[in-house]
Design goal:
- This protein is of the alpha+beta class.
- It has two domains: 163 residues, 2-Layer Sandwich (Ribosomal Protein S5, domain 2), CATH 3.30.230; 145 residues, 2-Layer Sandwich (Alpha-Beta Plaits), CATH 3.30.70.
- β9 and β10 form a beta hairpin.
- α1 runs antiparallel to α3 and α2 packs across α4.
- The protein is globular, with a radius of gyration of 20 Å.
- The two termini are 26 Å apart.
Length: 321
């Protein structure tokens, strides 16, 4: 959109269906776009060279933003240079329904929306690979060595097959299933969770390290299994795999009482499967319902069990790349 109101671009969140933590060790993961949680970047051109940003964490001159927005500062400077926009003043506002620190790709969504709105301003056509590379500039600052999983999933409208150091691809499937995503309302603890899993993998106690390695390897195999179940519309088997994944993640110490409560509630309400999504120790769970009516029943049970936000996501993917 352009004109007197300026330029506006959208991005969305993501959820990991399978493969959290194991993807760190080279195993595959399946990541789904969460179109139901959106972020908007609105850019209005000024008559001077002043640049401001208005978002949840800061309002004012971009150059005066705190260190936690350095990723955005660097990205905007890079886009300005590459798109020949140096010296162009603007007011940039970010609004989002993607909760922060829930494993839903909120920082990558900010980056992708900014990339898209700058491309509109510069009248540039950019493809998925370019969006991904630009988003990684910001993500590598925000998260040190970002895997690229969030950038890929947020920039894609289809399910992403992600495996570190391999070409990112998407794949298609169509099922009657609904994923119900439930937020505990508790901030996830990504760095601590990843570090604690690494400690288990490197434990001097061989039995502990061996069990952790077995869990990671099993999560990798479950990702291959889940891709097949999705393509063949085997929802019951997909649900069983999700349950197994949650049990493994619990053994790896990355679940929490709040996550386990929601998982149990969903299963008792008839979910085919339920598991945490993301790094754990807070954040969200995903549950698999066989249809919309069952999804409503599960959603009601999750609200009663303490979920602060819910999203219902059709389990369908175009598979365009």
């Amino acid at each position: 959109m352009s004109g007197i109101q300026g330029y506006r671009a959208l991005s969305h969140g993501k959820v990991i269906l399978i493969g959290e933590h194991s993807a760190v060790y080279g195993e595959p993961a399946i990541v789904l776009p969460l179109h139901e949680a959106q972020l908007s970047a609105h850019l209005k051109i000024r008559n001077d060279s002043v640049r401001t940003i208005d978002c949840e964490y800061f309002h004012g001159l971009i150059d005066d933003a705190q260190d936690n927005l350095r990723n955005i500062q660097v990205l905007i400077n890079r886009l300005s240079r590459d798109f020949s926009l140096d010296g162009v003043g603007f007011d940039l506002s970010i609004t989002s329904s993607i909760p922060h620190a829930r494993g839903m790709g909120s920082s990558a969504a900010v980056a992708v929306a900014i990339i898209r709105v700058f491309a509109q301003l510069a009248e540039r056509s950019i493809n998925f690979a370019q969006e991904f590379e630009y988003a990684q500039i910001a993500e590598n600052i925000a998260h040190s060595r970002a895997s690229g999983m969030d950038s890929a999933a947020v920039a894609s409208d289809s399910a992403v097959w992600f495996k570190r150091d391999e070409t990112i691809s998407t794949f298609g499937f169509e099922t009657p299933g609904i994923l119900v995503v439930a937020d505990t309302g508790i901030t996830g603890q990504t760095r601590t969770a990843v570090s604690d899993v690494r400690s288990l993998m490197q434990s001097p106690a061989m039995s502990i390290a061996h069990k952790a390695f077995e869990g990671i390897n099993r999560l990798g195999q479950l990702a291959y299994d889940c891709a097949q179940y999705l393509r063949q519309c085997e929802l019951s088997q997909l649900g069983i795999a999700m349950n197994q994944a949650h049990d493994i993640l619990s053994e790896l110490s990355v679940s929490s009482a709040e996550l386990d409560t929601l998982v149990k509630s969903a299963r008792n309400a008839g979910a085919l499967g339920a598991k945490l999504t993301g790094s754990g120790r807070g954040g969200c769970i995903i549950t698999l319902a066989e249809n919309g009516d069952k999804a409503d029943t599960i959603s009601h049970a999750l609200r009663k069990s303490g979920a602060v936000r819910l999203w219902q996501v059709p389990l369908i993917s175009k598979g365009i790349r």
